Structures are given as C-alpha cells and as structure tokens.
Amino acid sequence: MTLILRAAAAALVVAASTTAASADCTREVLQSFTRQSNTDMVRKEMNLIGETGPFTMTIDYVKPDRMRQVVKTLTAPDKPTETILVGSDAWSRTGTDAWQKLDKSTTDQIVSFFKSTFAETPANVGTFECLGAETIEGQKVRAFKGLDEPKQKTPEQIEAEKRGEKPAEAPKNEAVRVVYLDVGTGLPARIIFAREGMLDKPIFKEVYSYPTDIKIEKPAG
C-alpha cells in the first residue's frame, strides 16, 4: 500500500521552471488545483499498472481529515484492498476480511499523502502550455500540456566528461503530461500521461469528480 501511495503522489508532482510564454497557462492550472484544495469532497479514479499487472484505484477525500482508498486488480476484482483514514487513525482490509487498525508509522504516511494530494494548497504543479478547448466523454474541458523539465546529467555522463569523452545522451522520456480543467467549474477534470500524438491512448489516467454525498466513517467494531 505504501508503494501505491508513493506512486499516486509522484504522479502529481513534477518540478519545472516557469517561462514567460507559459506563465498564464501555468497560473490557470495552479489556480484550478488551489480551488480543488478548497473543495469539501473529491473523488479520484485511476488506472495503473503495478508489479502484478493492471489495477484501478479510487480515492475519496472528505475535509477536514477523512479518506477512503479502494484498489481493485483485474485478477481479483471481488477482493479489493480498502483503506480508511479518519482523523489520526487508519484501517485496512482485503475483500470481506476483518478491518485491521494500521500502525502509527503507516498511518502517518497516509495522513501525509492526504495532506499533500488534497488538503494543502499546492506550492508547484509544474509548467504548462495551453492546448485549447475540447470535449471528452461529453465534458467540455481546457487542455494544458506539461513542459519538459531541464535534463540533469547522469553519473555516467559526468564521469565520461571527466575523462574527456563525449557522454552518451540519456534516454528520452517520450511521455507527456496533460491536465484537463472543466470549463464550467474550473476544477481539474483529469490528468493523463501519454506519448505525443497518442493522447487518446494514455499510459496513465486519473479522473476527478466532485460528489456532495460522500460519507466516510470508522469501520464498525
């Protein structure tokens, strides 16, 4: 579970410098996620690939301090792994097994994940350029593409330069990040990672919705 939380969190944070050309687009994306952090309830649904194959993850957030995460694999969709956070306590179970209270260290990680991905206003969402408006699954959105980060030299490249050799180029990351904002609400609608020219076939996708009736309670017993 800890690895899953790290992967989900890492997908949201990409550090980059802001340029004048992308300043307005970046500002709009930042304002959207700031607005989301001030929303009482958010649902995030993701399609991911893990060590055991594809799986889905649904996370419900309820302010000020409640979260529910449900992970389902394609091989065992009837035995989801469910985690609940209420305040400073967390529980987990698989399928219909009994709920188990999690230790403090694991709970602290979940609390940190909750704060960094929803409860706190983001300090940096990366740098973006505007792609324009479109309609996805009947939803009118504005699309923003994340710009490449400055490439850092690998240890192998540094050593080659010390020897006076021409360093080999690092493998190029072909995936791009695209954030879609709902035209009507201005809130984040979805995020994808996909190869250029193949945005309709994302490698990673997360979809946001904003129900008003999410209820998260401590497990009975």
What distinguishing features does this structure have?
11-stranded antiparallel β-sheet; disordered N terminus; 221 residues
Explain what the structure shows.
The protein is globular. An 11-stranded antiparallel beta sheet has the order 6-5-4-3-2-1-11-10-9-8-7, covered by helices on one side. About 20% of the residues lie in helices and about 35% in strands. The chain has about 220 residues and is α+β, with helices and mostly antiparallel strands. Helix 1 (about 1-10) packs parallel to helix 3. The longest helix has 16 residues, at about 105-120.
What is the alpha-carbon Rg in Å? 20 Å
Strand order within the widest sheet? 6-5-4-3-2-1-11-10-9-8-7
Class derived from helix and strand content: alpha+beta
| Helical coverage, percent range | 10-25%
The number of E-state strands comes to 11
Secondary-structure element order, N to C: HHEEEEEEHEEHEEE
What is the CA–CA distance across the termini?
Answer: 23 Å
For the largest beta-sheet, the strand count, sense and barrel status come to: 11 strands, antiparallel
Count of helical regions: 4
Low-confidence stretches: 2-21
- Give the mean pLDDT: 82
Shape assignment: globular
Query: DSSP strand (E) fraction?
Result: 35-45%
